[in-house]
């Protein structure tokens, strides 16, 4: 083909590509901003030493991802991985194995605390296989989640999940996982728009959620501003939220997806009362790093590590581009029925921003207070099948039939069905507890 013909072909293709990206971006923003609000040592954040106790289990003994294994039970007797030890093994590297005996501790019908946004089966999803996949690290065994032991670990304490709707996803999962063993007269739930508290009277414990999607203060914390260009972040201010975190025994933070609405973020030094004075447009990754430093400075200056444990959940990836995992004819995560099976230890889609990951590693790695990182990004990358997809709600209403037939704009490929992937987040959290 001649040079001129090549140039003409490119001129035809580029607008189509740009149009596709624009459509996906608008759909992402629509989904994100119209929703309801309701140890690995930080010093070794993304670097893991090899297993020294035993060799990794032979990969051939793992069940494959084929659908013909759906009634197979994993043979634990033949498994030579050792028990989880945070000093010896990382839960990051492993694979998803279909295990029909891996019954969830709850369903979205038996646990009354799940938002309708995450209640996929109740909302019409009739493929239950997504809840039977089990994460198996390469070299070690994650302990089986025991609700009684989990409650004993937090007895007399306040456990608080802090962050965005994905952190609320994880909080509701944890509440539902322990709820199964608590008598009705020994528990209560108080839901708030910003702060929600689940109380376990018998154990004198609370499992709480605090809504702070950026951790730092913004003008879109409670009254959601749908237009990202009108949102302003006070990247040097955190006290408005942080005053509610003091006195908490176990803090579990996250922040990521709310930052990903554009290449620039309007950032403010000073007070909102000053209007646009002091506002500056910064690259998202730069603003994110500054915001994380503000959070880290508060932790280092306020938290006593002898009385409070601090965790940070890494980014939960979005699955907006099916071509990332080889389904070129797919529509985001819609109609995906099994995890991505790739022979890669470091598979990342366009839904995980590596620059943001480096920011987390860089900031937490320099903190004085130890922060246990719950690195859930890699294992979540494979789970394109476990999102809410079209079995969700928008602005407090279930998707209607017309919306369900338009997954490009309405499929939720950010949040997870419950029970589901967040249960694995909590199994890893439980292992560190």
Task: Write down the Rg.
Answer: 22 Å
Average the pLDDT over all residues and give the rounded result: 84
What general form does the structure show? globular
Structural class comes to: alpha/beta
Unreliable stretches covering 5 or more consecutive residues: 1-19, 36-74
Beta-strand content bin: 15-25%
Given the structure, what is the number of helices?
10
Largest sheet: 7 strands, mixed
Question: How far apart are the termini?
Answer: 62 Å
* Helix percentage: 25-40%
Question: How many strand segments?
Answer: 19
Secondary-structure element order, N to C? HEEEEHEHEEEEEHEEEHEHEHEEEHHEH
Strand numbers in spatial order across the main sheet: 6-7-8-5-11-14-15
GO cellular component, one term: Golgi apparatus
Subcellular location: Membrane
GO molecular function: O-acetyltransferase activity
Organism: Lithospermum erythrorhizon
């Amino acid at each position: 083909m001649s040079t001129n013909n090549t140039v003409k072909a490119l001129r035809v293709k580029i607008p189509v590509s740009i149009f596709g990206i624009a459509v996906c971006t608008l759909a992402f923003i629509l989904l994100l901003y119209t929703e309801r609000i309701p140890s690995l040592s930080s010093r070794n954040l993304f670097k893991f030493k090899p297993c020294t106790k035993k060799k990794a289990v032979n990969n051939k003994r793992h069940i494959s991802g084929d659908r013909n294994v759906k009634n197979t039970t994993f043979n634990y007797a033949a498994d030579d991985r050792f028990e989880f030890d945070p000093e010896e093994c990382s839960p990051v590297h492993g694979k998803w194995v279909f295990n029909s005996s891996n019954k969830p501790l709850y369903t979205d019908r038996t646990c009354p605390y799940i938002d309708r946004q995450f209640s996929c089966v109740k909302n019409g999803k009739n493929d239950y296989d997504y809840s039977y996949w089990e994460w198996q690290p390469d070299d070690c065994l994650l302990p089986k989640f025991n609700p009684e032991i989990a409650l004993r670990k937090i007895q007399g304490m306040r456990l608080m999940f802090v962050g965005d709707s994905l952190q609320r996803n994880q909080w509701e999962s944890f509440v539902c996982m322990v709820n199964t063993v608590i008598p009705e007269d020994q528990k209560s739930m108080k839901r708030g728009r910003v702060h929600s508290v689940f109380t376990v009277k018998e154990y004198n414990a609370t499992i709480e959620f605090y809504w702070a999607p950026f951790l730092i203060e913004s003008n879109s914390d409670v009254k959601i501003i749908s237009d990202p260009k009108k949102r302003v972040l006070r990247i040097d201010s955190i006290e408005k939220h942080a005053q509610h975190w003091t006195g908490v025994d176990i803090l579990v933070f996250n922040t990521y997806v709310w930052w990903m609405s554009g290449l620039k973020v309007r950032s403010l030094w000073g007070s909102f009362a000053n209007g646009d004075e002091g506002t500056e447009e910064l690259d998202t990754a730069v603003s994110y790093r500054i915001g994380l430093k503000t959070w880290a400075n508060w932790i280092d200056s306020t938290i006593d590590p002898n009385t409070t444990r601090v965790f940070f959940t890494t980014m939960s990836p979005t699955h907006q581009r099916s071509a990332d995992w080889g389904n070129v004819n797919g529509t985001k995560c819609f109609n995906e029925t099994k995890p991505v099976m790739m022979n890669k230890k470091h598979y990342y889609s366009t839904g995980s921003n590596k620059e943001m990951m480096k920011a987390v590693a860089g900031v937490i790695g320099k903190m004085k207070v130890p922060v246990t990182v719950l690195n859930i990004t890699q294992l979540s990358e494979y789970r394109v099948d476990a999102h809410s997809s079209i079995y969700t709600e928008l602005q407090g209403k279930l998707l209607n039939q017309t919306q369900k037939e338009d997954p490009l704009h309405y499929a939720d490929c950010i949040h997870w069905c419950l029970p589901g992937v967040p249960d694995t987040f909590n199994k890893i959290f439980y292992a560190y507890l």
